[in-house]
Write a structure and sequence with these properties.
By secondary structure, the chain is an all-alpha fold. It is about 65% helix and about 0% strand.
Length: about 375
């Protein structure tokens, strides 16, 4: 009963005109659509985005299987999976708790299974490799994301090119909240919300990366930001956030595709462009144009209201995530520059481990502890997205 009362109070407060408009004199009545052909955002519009998310996911599966996969096969990418380790219930149960067992655990498992420690180590390496996707899966995923990010970026630039707020961010707030939504902007927003909603769920079946929860937080924050900005008709500044984000991602996906196609020099060039564009757009333009506008221009033109603080908090969360991922980009670049001949590496997901045998059936390179595995993976990972 108490929880229901808290929920009702929170819901009532969140949708109150005080929360969204403060003392500006505006109300939800300003968002009512009339029969004049002018559309204002309605929270019910978001259902279109959820439907689009399902459509986008289905389009993705078709594109990966029937377009990206044949291209990958044409260039010699094989959909080969690592060998499965021999069935062993004892080791399988141990693997659920310890993917990188320490020496003591290896010794204990060796006694329980009557296997040598090297064979136990090799079994764990083979088992870990089973959780890593094939290069074909990685290539098709990168190809799909490149296609979407590049297409939606071009669409966003075309749609915003003649809009006054594209050049002058004060126009994001002048005349607020009486900002009607043209059809092109409407579908731009719906497609973007639909795409990020599909990412929130497909992330659980996509290539698993080390920053899984950071990425999930990013998707959730972006979804909340988009839905929040739609409900409050902060759509103009929302479109700036979208086009700034989309300007970066397709460079990374292009670099990954080049890596999987063994075009290392092209991969390095694309990765360098990606790092520069990331810094300029997400760490310079984003705070200078967008966050500055919401922190300083918005209260001067519109006034203060509680929703503004939540909106700014979500923008700052994105900025923190941008800074975190840029630190990873810098780390990769530093490793490449300080290690002669080393290729651009991936610090987000692991490369397949060596499980070759010598003439006695033993693993050639013993892998004795978690730290060794971690260092091995760190130095031999492939390029992937850091966004």
């Amino acid at each position: 009963m108490f929880m229901m009362e808290v929920y009702d109070y929170a819901r009532t407060t969140f949708w109150s005109e005080w929360f969204w408009f403060g003392g500006s004199g505006h109300s939800w009545a300003d968002f009512v659509n009339k029969d004049d052909g002018i559309h204002h955002p309605q929270y019910s519009d978001i259902q279109w985005a959820l439907y689009l998310g399902l459509v986008i996911f289905m389009i993705r599966k078709v594109a990966e299987r029937h377009i990206a996969a044949p291209i990958g096969r044409y260039f010699g990418i094989r959909n080969t999976l690592p060998r499965k380790p021999p069935p062993n219930p004892v080791l399988e149960n141990a693997f659920k708790c310890h993917k990188f067992p320490e020496n003591d655990k290896i010794q204990s498992l060796s006694k329980q299974t009557d296997l040598s420690t090297r064979k136990v180590e090799r079994w764990f390496r083979m088992r870990r490799n089973q959780d890593r996707p094939s290069f074909m899966k990685r290539f098709t995923e990168a190809a799909w994301r490149f296609t979407f990010y590049f297409s939606v970026f071009v669409y966003g630039v075309v749609v915003l090119w003649d809009k006054p707020w594209f050049v002058d961010s004060t126009h994001c707030w002048v005349g607020y909240p009486h900002h009607h939504i043209p059809p092109a902007i409407f579908w731009y927003y719906m497609i973007e919300i639909g795409f990020y909603s599909s990412l929130m769920f497909s992330q659980f079946i996509d290539v698993r990366r080390k920053d899984f929860w950071e990425m999930f937080t990013h998707h959730v924050a972006t979804m909340l930001l988009l839905c929040f900005s739609w409900c409050g008709n902060f759509v103009r500044v929302g479109t700036l956030v979208l086009v700034i984000h989309d300007a970066v991602d397709f460079w990374m996906e292009a670099a990954k595709m080049a890596k999987y196609l063994k075009a290392q020099r092209l991969c390095d060039v694309l990765f360098a462009i990606f790092g520069i564009v990331w810094f300029v757009t997400r760490l310079v333009i984003f705070p200078v144009r967008v966050i500055y506008s919401t922190y300083f221009e918005l209260p001067v033109i519109v006034g203060y209201f509680p929703a503004m603080y939540m909106f700014n908090a979500m923008l700052c969360l994105l900025l923190v995530l941008h800074a975190y991922w840029f630190s990873l980009i810098v780390k990769v670049t530093y490793d490449v520059l300080t290690n002669s001949g080393e290729e651009v590496t991936d610090i987000r997901s692991s490369e397949e481990e060596n499980v070759s045998e010598d003439e006695n059936g033993h693993a050639v390179q013993p892998n004795n502890n978690h730290n060794h595995n971690h260092n091995h993976n760190h130095n031999h990972n492939k390029v992937k997205a850091v966004s």
